[in-house]
């Protein structure tokens, strides 16, 4: 009602439940979709205890392919040993150049969107919540995806599409920055 949209449950096809969101303007539909997704995330969080997360690759402009390597001996936890590494291309920016710049506008918008979703998911509950930014190592679990074989060379776009879906990623923390919110 707040977004002036109609949300209709469509027939179950191929085991998938789908909804249709209609409204008077595209802006209303977009806001309705955002609130609908927030509501679904809230239900998932309440029933399963899932967390809303966002992964950003900061060095995207430095290469076009990703190679999967075995973690070195100094790696924090060697249970998940497949480590992605962007292969630098001479056609792209120099390695580490992203460290000299701030975040791009699309990265900031993505961060803002995810923080907003997380806050909306818990806004109706009293309690304590934490917000954490984890910096450090990333390893891929090989159990669920045969694509993650050590020595494989993958196009960067294929890799990003794969990790933006459900994938077994283990973050091996080096540093955690936390903020606690008490409501």
Keywords:
single chain, about 180 residues, alpha+beta, 2 domains, three-stranded antiparallel β-sheet, two-stranded antiparallel sheet, 3 helices, 7 strands
Any overview of this molecule?
With 183 residues, the protein is α+β, with helices and mostly antiparallel strands. It folds into 2 domains: 1-50, no CATH class; 51-182, no CATH class. The chain has helices at 26-48, 105-122, 156-164; strands at 5-9, 19-23, 63-70, 82-88, 128-140, 153-155, 169-182. A 3-stranded antiparallel sheet has the order 4-3-6. Strands 1-2 form a two-stranded antiparallel ribbon. A two-stranded antiparallel sheet has the order 5-7. The mean pLDDT is 76.
Gyration radius from CA atoms, angstroms:
20 Å
Helix and strand sequence: EEHEEHEEHE
Major β-sheet strand ordering = 4-3-6
Q: Domains counted in the coordinates: how many? A: 2
Let me know the largest β-sheet. 3 strands, antiparallel
Q: Give a count of the beta strands, DSSP E runs of length 2 or more.
A: 7
**What's the overall average pLDDT, rounded?**
76
